[in-house]
Amino acid sequence: MSVADSEFGDIVDGALRIEDLVEREALGELCRSFFVLFGIGVRIFSSGGALIAEAATAQSICAFVAKTPNGRVACSETVGAVKALVPDAVDVLHPCFTGAQYRVCPLVYEGRSVGRLVIGPYLPVAVREAPPSLLALVPPAEAELANVALLQMPKAKVDTVARIATHLKNALDLILFSGHRALLSSRMHLASAREGYRALEEKNVALQETYEQLKELDRLKSNFLATVSHELRTPLTSIIGYSEMLGEGLVGPLTDEQTDYVRTIRSKGEQLLGLILSLLDLTKLDMGSMHLQRRRVAIKSVLEEAISSVKPQSLKRSVTLLLQAQGSLSDTHGDPERLRQVFINLIDNAIKFTPQGGTVSIAVTEVDVRPSVPEETPGFALLAASKRAIEVRVADTGIGIPQRERSRVFDAFYQVDSSSTREFGGAGLGLSIVKRLVDAHEGGIRIEDNAPSGTVFVVELPALGAPS
């Protein structure tokens, strides 16, 4: 049997208490309505003996008798006996020493006892004067006063009280049925919610285990890449070094064909070394082991150095590079070497995908940036304080990036089009490294259109506030 089936059985077969099925205020209102109609006190007790609801007033005879010590004791004993009385299936009449009566009725719902109903005290019609049991508790001189107080008690026939009790029990049964149905619905809803929560917890545990496994696999992957890249870099450095010596004729003259071969070896070696260094950078960023040497940085100087580094590529492809600095610029706080790497990657990428004769423009300015807020609370955008930022826009006139691909171009090894990889080269690591480095500088990067063609990469870095 499943957990849900077990809980359903507990809901249906569990113990019922009248206080669980009906609100006390509703029971009190029911008692008050009967008391107003018939003037006889009504009390409802739970199956455990607790008073749940009542509607009654103190009788004159009770106040009269309570003035004597023996009368108080007799009253206490009578009330205690009525409270302790638990009828099995039929109503029970309990006499009072005053000549009055109590009617104690069992409250049964679906074959289970849920409490009892006490009607009274009331004076049977047949009682016309104080009985000896009452007169024995009062001084003889006050016998007539006791008789007057007793006759002020509400009178009723036994069968009339029986009908009142039946009617009251029927009304209670309807109320209990309604309450029981609501209770079952509530408990079944709670049981369903608990079952859903339990299933969710199991899924969360399974997801956590999967996450830990993937995390471990990612760590092993990063360690593997770091180890392989490091081991490849050492012999590759030697290959590049020896090819340089051969190309410079340090070991003897070479024919023109041999020189071309050596240059090809060196070029491909440097290309492979660049890929290995990118892998090492990506691994360090993923593992959090790359330490930034932060200091005050003039962003315009970083951009000029980056443009100078990629100038040969732009000349080779006849691509014009334009740097536009608008107004005075604040410095930023970061690692100048890593920031230079960011913009070298972006500008080199723009040159690579720009046709011959095209233009790559780099515009830098200082702007106000408001922090992002959740969509469900747009009003907070007006209250959020803006911050100064250095904005660098790298725009090209190349083939552009489709809207559907822009969220993925920063993933490692991702290529928008595999044919572009063959045509333009690259392993899909540059933009991934750029994104991680910008994030490490507490900045942001996004992609915009450059109508009618091309792409704009927008980098925002925190400004220190003092113009350089």
Give the gist of this structure.
It contains 14 helices and 13 strands.
What would you note in describing this structure?
The protein is an alpha+beta fold and 468 residues long. It has three domains: 3-196, Dynein light chain 2a, cytoplasmic (Beta-Lactamase); 201-286, Helix Hairpins (Orthogonal Bundle); 292-371 and 383-467, Histidine kinase-like ATPase, C-terminal domain (Heat Shock Protein 90, 2-Layer Sandwich), CATH 3.30.565.10. Helices cover 52% and strands 20% of the residues. The protein contains 14 helices and 13 strands. It has helices at 3-13, 18-21, 24-38, 60-65, 69-84, 132-135, 143-151, 158-247, 256-287, 299-316, 336-352, 380-383, 418-424, 430-440, and strands spanning 42-46, 51-55, 92-95, 101-109, 112-124, 155-156, 295-297, 320-325, 330-334, 359-369, 387-396, 444-449, 455-467. Strands 7, 8, 9, 10, 11, 12 and 13 form a seven-stranded mixed beta sheet that branches. Strands 1, 2, 3, 4, 5 and 6 form a six-stranded mixed beta sheet that branches. Helix 8 (158-247) runs antiparallel to helix 9 (256-287) and helix 10 runs parallel beside helix 11 (336-352). Residues 1-13 and 418-424 have low confidence and may be disordered.
